[in-house]
Design the sequence.
């Protein structure tokens, strides 16, 4: 006879050892008061044994919303009845992920009252995830969350929850107010976040400087990244101190030669920067952050079209607005107007399940810029095109004498014969 | 009439961040001067006013019980005036204003939560991951468990800052790759076209499934008089896009799915700008509960990187300097025809010069 009671989860038990904290141990403790969590571990153990998943995914919605809840049903719910319905609520996080303990405790209480008592900080999109409630309790939890002032987040073919870096709350590199802007955009577009109306999902991520701590270029459709257009601020006294401390060779190897546009020179323990050729990469500032700082005339660079792998492979966002100020109400209005124009053109012409980056891939950036009413800018490309297959609208003969020249019908080229005139005035 | 419950307000929007900011953050908002790294896991942010905010970073498990979150709150109440932050990689950040409280806080984080302090500067940060078998409907492998197993092996590089540059690691449980770009990424790889359950195809919207295939390999078909779909196997590249759309087109296979390791992703605009990760090695068994073969391969990459990279070089930049030939030599991974791209823009990845390392 074995002395110890035989464990029901021998494979998961193995993950209780080792120096890194174990979520298994945490969930096992939780299972003492939440039987559903014990069953969750039971199902997970079975997945580990079989190398096979046991969740079915679908959608349930709370009245008035078309997103915010990720429904999961166990396909072995007869064996684990307490997790037969085991849904996730996506809760919109405070911008910058800064919390008061009161707020966190409130989330804990709601989670414990209605669901399994499991929280995740955070989902890849940025929201708080509250795991483990059935159909009925999920809706009740959502009501209580909203009653207490929280709101639930995006899912489906709509705007997803926004996220941003810590920005001006403690970082000296922040070139614009990421936190305020995230809150502003969330609130302005709250309907698009709750009522999916796009061809596919749309994500904003905001980073205060080109270090891009929000991973916005690779992970969002529309990155908004802080930058500056005047000179890097140089404190020569601190430069000298840095050189005295680290040595000139270190500065040459790790700062001067690492500059991508070779625009820094070092003379007599002083740094000179050719700011016209600085591309705001942040490297020198990161290494010498006491001596150097972003310039004072700050704003944002806006990019568009990034997404993860599915279908066309990974794409990064690319520049559509090299620089704009983002300080006054008018600046914010301009940003809102740009977003609306992008959504209108993409929603009108995008195909089902087509992210905005895939859409641009299909119709061409030139057509896209026409469609949203933006002037082309050399900063939008690495270099001009290298092939000669160009439809010059101005140089083409009119189709019929007297008919005005219109943009070639490329947006809807799949549908032959159908005339689409893109309104460029909007 | 049954009592009708009042509906809660809708469209509240994002919570008001101003209520959540630490008082020192609110006071010095947008007026920070510089920061300094005091020790691995602890940064000091100095404001123009002279205020100093000490940010103590600890790696969380991301998936946490309410009791663990409450313990975190207790610590934040004691040391941080009731405020704390999470990072994009699921680290906790305790916000401290008194320098002498840093060490007692770190001790309490270790004793009460079992969390390690680190993940700043030139270290490995917490591993990005998503739901896996715990709560996703598409995964071929687990996420949280794989991260736990790997961090057990790598945690010395989390609590120290002894790498040439920061290293970010991510994991993904299917080829959608939710985990994202990273210096080192561990992603699941499928090895055959979807297996179609023709008896249950009525649950799927067939035109949507046809349209979602990036290589136009799916077309309508009839089987036993019923509408279904078929896959042109030579065209299919096993991406699983159809599976997300239609659960009856199963792309996963417990017997054949493997893991691949990718290197050189970077999201920051520093120096050469953001970059995508590239295939390093593949065919690693999907081996729960600890995936030891994955950790071995990751360690090989890290050791070669520590050995060969210059200061400030991320993994991708190091490889760019020494060349892929040397990368495969120093890691011992075999370069095969599968490392050569065959998808869109493949030719842009070929070497079109005489610049070779001999």
Sequence:
């Amino acid at each position: 006879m074995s002395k110890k009671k035989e464990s029901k989860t021998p494979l998961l038990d193995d993950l209780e050892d080792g120096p890194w904290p174990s979520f298994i141990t945490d969930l096992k403790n939780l299972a003492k008061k939440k039987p559903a969590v014990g069953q969750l571990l039971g199902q997970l153990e079975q997945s580990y044994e079989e190398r096979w998943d046991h969740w079915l995914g679908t959608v349930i919605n709370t009245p008035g919303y078309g997103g915010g809840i990720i429904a999961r049903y166990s396909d072995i719910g007869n064996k684990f009845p307490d997790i037969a319905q085991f849904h996730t609520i996506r809760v919109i996080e405070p911008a910058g992920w800064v919390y008061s303990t009161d707020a966190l405790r409130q989330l804990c209480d709601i989670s414990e009252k209605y669901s399994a008592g499991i929280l995740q900080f955070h989902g890849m999109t940025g929201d708080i995830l509250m795991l483990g409630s059935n159909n009925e309790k999920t809706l009740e939890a959502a009501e209580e969350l909203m009653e207490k002032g929280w709101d639930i987040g995006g899912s489906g073919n709509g705007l997803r929850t926004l996220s941003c870096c810590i920005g001006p709350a403690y970082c000296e590199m922040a070139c614009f107010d990421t936190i305020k802007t995230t809150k502003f955009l969330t609130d302005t577009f709250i309907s698009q976040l709750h009522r999916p109306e796009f061809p596919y999902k749309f994500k904003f991520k905001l980073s205060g400087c080109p270090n891009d701590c929000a991973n916005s270029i690779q992970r969002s459709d529309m990155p908004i990244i802080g930058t500056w257009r005047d000179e890097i601020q140089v404190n020569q006294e601190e430069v000298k101190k840095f050189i005295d401390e680290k040595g000139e060779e270190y500065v040459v190897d790790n700062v001067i030669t690492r500059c991508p546009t070779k625009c820094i020179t070092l003379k007599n323990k002083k740094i000179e920067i050719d700011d016209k050729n600085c591309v705001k990469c942040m490297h020198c500032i990161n290494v010498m952050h006491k001596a150097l700082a972003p310039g004072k005339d700050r704003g944002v660079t806006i990019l568009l079209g990034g997404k993860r792998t599915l279908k066309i492979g990974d794409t990064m966002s690319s520049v559509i607005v090299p620089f704009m100020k983002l300080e006054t109400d008018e600046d914010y209005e301009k940003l809102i107007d740009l977003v609306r124009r992008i959504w209108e053109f993409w929603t009108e012409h995008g195909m089902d399940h087509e992210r905005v980056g895939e859409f641009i891939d299909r119709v061409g950036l030139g057509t896209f810029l026409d469609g949203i009413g933006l002037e082309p800018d050399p900063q939008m490309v690495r270099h001009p095109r290298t092939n000669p297959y160009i439809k010059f609208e101005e140089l083409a003969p009119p189709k019929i004498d007297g008919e005005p020249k219109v943009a070639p019908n490329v947006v809807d080229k799949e549908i032959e014969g159908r005339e689409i005139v893109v309104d460029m005035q909007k | 009439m049954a009592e009708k419950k009042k509906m809660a307000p809708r469209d509240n929007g994002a919570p008001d961040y101003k209520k959540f900011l630490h008082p020192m953050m609110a006071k010095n908002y947008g007026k920070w001067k510089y920061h300094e790294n005091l020790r691995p896991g602890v940064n000091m942010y100095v404001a123009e006013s002279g205020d100093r905010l000490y940010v103590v970073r600890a790696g969380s498990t991301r998936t946490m019980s309410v009791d663990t979150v409450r313990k975190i709150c207790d610590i934040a109440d004691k040391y941080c005036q009731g405020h704390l932050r999470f990072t994009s990689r699921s680290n906790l950040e305790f916000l401290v204003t008194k320098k002498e409280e840093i060490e007692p806080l770190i001790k309490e984080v270790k004793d009460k939560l079992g969390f390690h302090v680190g993940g700043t500067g030139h270290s490995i940060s917490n591993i990005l991951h998503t739901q896996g078998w715990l709560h996703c409907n598409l995964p071929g492998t687990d996420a949280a468990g794989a991260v736990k197993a790997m961090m057990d092996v790598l945690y010395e590089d989390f609590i120290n800052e002894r790498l040439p540059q920061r290293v970010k690691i991510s994991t993904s449980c299917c080829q959608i790759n939710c985990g994202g770009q990273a210096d080192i990424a561990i992603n699941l790889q499928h090895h055959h076209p979807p297996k179609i359950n023709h008896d249950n195809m009525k649950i799927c919207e067939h035109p949507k499934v046809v349209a979602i295939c990036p290589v136009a390999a799916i077309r309508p078909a009839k089987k036993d008089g019923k509408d279904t779909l078929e896959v042109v196997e030579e065209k299919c590249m096993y991406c699983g896009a159809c599976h997300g759309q239609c659960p009856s087109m199963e792309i996963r296979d417990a017997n054949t799915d493997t893991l691949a390791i990718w290197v050189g992703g970077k999201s920051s605009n520093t120096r050469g700008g953001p970059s995508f990760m590239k295939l390093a090695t593949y065919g690693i068994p999907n081996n729960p509960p600890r995936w030891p073969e994955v950790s071995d391969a990751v360690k090989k990459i890290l050791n070669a990187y520590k050995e060969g990279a210059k200061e400030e070089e991320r993994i991708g930049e190091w490889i760019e300097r020494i060349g892929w030939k040397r990368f495969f030599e120093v890691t011992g991974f075999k370069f095969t025809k599968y490392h050569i791209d065959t998808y869109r823009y493949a030719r842009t990845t070929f070497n079109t010069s005489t610049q070779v390392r001999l």
